[in-house]
Amino acid sequence: MPDTHYENPKLAEIYDVDSPWSVDRDFYLSLAGSSRQSILDLGCGTGLLCNAYARKNHDVTGADPSLAMLEVARRKPHGKEIEWIQACAQDFQSEKRFDLIIMTGHAFQVLLHDYDVLATFSVIKKHLKSNGLAVFESRNPAIDWASHWNYDMDLELPEYSVHESRRFLSMEDDCMTFELRYKFPDEVLVSKSMLRFMTNDDIEERLAASGLRVEKLLGDWNSKQFDQRYSKEMIFFVRSYI
Known about the structure:
The protein is an alpha/beta fold. Helices cover about 25% and strands about 35% of the residues.
């Protein structure tokens, strides 16, 4: 079923307030360097990173399954310079080959089944140039995420505020279910979401089965090496086997 958090046009309109520019986006933006590159953002959402890449004169393609998100993305300052494609990561197809492919915002974790993971890795391998790089992140399942998952916050918009809350519901095997609730002045919107928390070994095993190799694995946005016990992030740098 579609996730209201991404599919509802009203929520898409406030997504950039809810998830503004951040240190992880600085990290991904720095990967492209200064020379012009072809870049694919799988799960681009409202296109914040795509717009930033295009501002630096890169050739950018943004793919996302949510039409509501893409409508917001197209209105970005450099939106007309970017190729926008409505597609899930596991179904994306293009004649282009890319220097850099990214999946950000823990989008990898919405791939709940192995066949989705393997299909996405197949897409990455097919669309990477021979010397291309793919980078994505997933949360380290060794961390007790459930204990600090809940929050409440107010989103301040020009004409009104929206109260947002997130609540952990359950963890079954490696999949977490949680709820997001948005209280607008005129209505309350609720979305129920699931994320998969795979181990780094499980992810690397599926990458290898897809003909991809891990060049390095970082544990935070300051480029520290991944530590199984303490790192919150698992940031994979991936290349294709030659």
